[in-house]
Amino acid sequence: MKTATDQKATSLETVQSSLLNMGLLDGLSSAQFNDFLQQAVQKTYPKGFVLFAQGDEAEAFYLITRGWVKLYRETLDGEEAVVDVLTAGHLFGETAIFEEDGYGMSAEVVEEAEIVSLPLGLLKQLMAESPQLSMNMLKTMSRFRRQQDMELEHRTLQNASQRIGCFLLRLCKPDAKSPIRLNLPYDKTLIASRLGMKPETFSRALARLREDTGIRIQGATVEIDGLNQLSGYSCSTCSSSYPCKDL
Amino acid sequence: MKTATDQKATSLETVQSSLLNMGLLDGLSSAQFNDFLQQAVQKTYPKGFVLFAQGDEAEAFYLITRGWVKLYRETLDGEEAVVDVLTAGHLFGETAIFEEDGYGMSAEVVEEAEIVSLPLGLLKQLMAESPQLSMNMLKTMSRFRRQQDMELEHRTLQNASQRIGCFLLRLCKPDAKSPIRLNLPYDKTLIASRLGMKPETFSRALARLREDTGIRIQGATVEIDGLNQLSGYSCSTCSSSYPCKDL
DNA sequence: CGAGGGTTTGAAGTGCATCAAATAGTGTGG
DNA sequence: CCACACTATTTGATGCACTTCAAACCCTCG
């Protein structure tokens, strides 16, 4: 719950290339794009920094260029439900553009992150002028929505071990060659809540996944011999078979 | 899994007023609106009719004017996850507009329904011309997305009885006077899957809800003395307190 | 009346949560 | 470089919630 503030501005060029890569702003005139660029601010945020809290007035949306950010909701009695954990290339906060009572969730940095913030007002304004921009926005939202649908399905139909397997599969590069080695991107407790389970359950479920599929785990390092090994285990109770490109 | 076909065309006027009410087409020129109207088809579908299945090529989107429709996904091993159950005034299938591989879920009529179908192609075409239309679409999607977020939160944080209480609350008209009487809109088995639980669990959880809150249940009829009674019970583990306008 | 679906009830099992405690890992100051 | 403090992770024991399988009940409709 830190609100510390080590925030270092970085060069415009970096910001520019980041913005171009995210797709949302494709098709804007260069004048329009420059408007954005002028108002873009890139900073470095420490772990624990809260970018915004549920209900805050929505003034900006964000693009991550490094690090990890957690999106979550808090209930009246203090529980926390992690909606998603995002990293470089991901966009967030932009869906607040149509919501009257501020951001629908909170966002907190979980691993030191570089983040570009952009004014929502400008986005809204340019959207009225550029159908292409609206279209991009729709695509973005559509993809998010599909992800959320999958998420709900997973919670309903997959057990803890399968959800972990699915999570690991999504960490694998599609073209990786066996055996695949990968590192868990953030700590196990956070992965657990990302997947809707308690840390203890995560630990046990991971152990079971290891026994059932033969993957090897050493601390935060995971080694997988073949993807079929995992996809057969995790994807059977899912409506889209591996590779599920939506997640 | 019926595919029967009793389909009766209805008058253009009815279709027109339905279309005007749904908000999505606000701001279109009358010429554009008429294009839509020309291609709108309203039919009556029997219970069990499958409007489209996951993966089908997406050619139309739909507006319900009467009855109930279930949106769901099916897994490889035959399980079914109900995404939502919709009724008059609800729109569905329109989010397939940006998806390359057809509808992301299946849609089946669960209570005889009158449904207007509209060509997705036309929507896409007009969206390029009318920023307002894109904007409407974005609002629609944004609302859907928020609903899905809530849904996920509920599955994570509420137990079965609380989810049923929440469901009942959303059936109540906000201005209803106590005691509130209402009828379950579709059968209990379907409500159960809508809420992500088995019929047996639903039955027992409903019994527990009755004991804990004092609501009265007689078959499909529910009587509630006060909303606080229910909201206190169901909404405490939720991030938005009653009345949660998003669902 | 009888068939069949929806609903409830009972008994037993499974999975995840909880509480408690041990262990491993990490960073700090000495 | 070590000892300590603190956090992350694992393990064990137990409980509760939901599911499963089975059977009874109920209601509607032909």
Q: Please mark out the parts of chain A with pLDDT under 50 across 5 or more consecutive residues, or reply none.
A: 1-9
Portion in helices of chain A: 40-55%
Task: State the largest interface.
Answer: A-B, 46 and 46 residues
Mean pLDDT of chain A: 87
Rg of chain A, Cα atoms, Å: 19 Å
Number of helices of chain A: 8
Structural class of chain A: alpha+beta
Beta-strand percentage of chain A? 15-25%
End-to-end distance of chain A: 29 Å
Number of strands of chain A: 9
The global form of chain A is: globular
Main sheet: strands, sense, barrel of chain A? 6 strands, antiparallel
Series of H and E elements of chain A:
HHEEEEEEHHHEHHEEH
Oligomer: homodimer
Task: Report a brief summary of the structure.
Two copies of one chain form a homodimer. The first copy, chain A, is an alpha+beta fold.
How are the SSEs ordered, and which strands pair?
The structure is a homodimer of 247-residue chains.
Chain A: H1 12-21, H2 30-39, E1 41-45, E2 50-52, E3 60-74, E4 80-86, E5 91-92, E6 106-119, H3 120-129, H4 131-157, H5 160-171, E7 180-183, H6 188-194, H7 199-213, E8 216-218, E9 221-224, H8 227-234
The first copy, chain A, binds a DNA duplex (30 and 30 nucleotides) through residues 159-160, 187-189, 197-205, 207, 219.
